[in-house]
# Entry
Amino acid sequence: MELTGKVALITGGAGGLGRAFARTLVEAGADICLFDVDQSALDEATAALAQTHKHRRCVGLTADVRSPAAVQQAVTEAVTALGSIDILINNAGGSLHTPKALLEITEADWDLVLDVNLKGTFNCCQAVIPLMRDRGGGRIINLSSIGGRTASIVTGVPYAAAKAGIIGLTRRLAKEAGPWGINVNAIAPGTVLSGERMVRLWQELSPAEQQQTLETIPLGRLSTPEEQAEVVRFLAGPGAVYITGAVIDTNGGRFMG
Ligand SMILES: NC(=O)c1ccc[n+]([C@@H]2O[C@H](COP(=O)([O-])OP(=O)(O)OC[C@H]3O[C@@H](n4cnc5c(N)ncnc54)[C@H](O)[C@@H]3O)[C@@H](O)[C@H]2O)c1
# Structure
């Protein structure tokens, strides 16, 4: 129960990985706040947590991470409800239905992917870091991706740019927030069958394409959400106190930097 007494805010918390992070962190003793734009998924996710962990506080707030004002308001509500934010998981994002060939990418596609993944991460950090600084420290874990580490055929150009941008943002923030006791790290998952959409995308590949993908992964298989969540738990916990500005390649060896 290494996170007892801590409050974790998970953006995109109603999605596949967000729910797995919430389950794992709540099991480690944390109280949880989820931000998401999908109200019904948010209600479902918070109800599931409340049912399995009655002794923990779990709050779901509708917040679009693209809007600094919406983020600020939701952060204020989260602190009113839970007292503090000790751990921030910037997880809202994805390729948001835009994996397309270069010449088919629209300005709207570009803006959506960059705004949710990269600007959203920045907005949440900017709203939460002053609170962490005033309390003497905190942990921030950002979701990059294999798509931000190396060219990946399954993601589009905007996603690659956003997830590579998150790595730069992580390092620069680690430098600025380190003196305040705030550790800022990122994880870079490969394909995770995190929900129905990812399962469908994987099943749409032919057996030959699936085999080709698996051959690029030294560990020879895709990851589970729980495996990603264990790394997040580590980065949020006491064992990672001297790690900051790092990108942990949770992609089975597909990228070795
Ligand atoms: N699943 C994978 O294979 C994989 C691999 C590498 C990285 N990632 C990253 O992990 C994160 C989570 O992925 P997932 O597979 O759980 O995706 P998901 O689609 O299941 O979850 C994403 C969540 O973000 C929410 N969201 C979307 N736009 C938002 C906004 N503007 N404000 C707030 N919330 C918003 C969605 O409603 C959804 O609940 C993403 O950042 C993704 O890029 C996933």
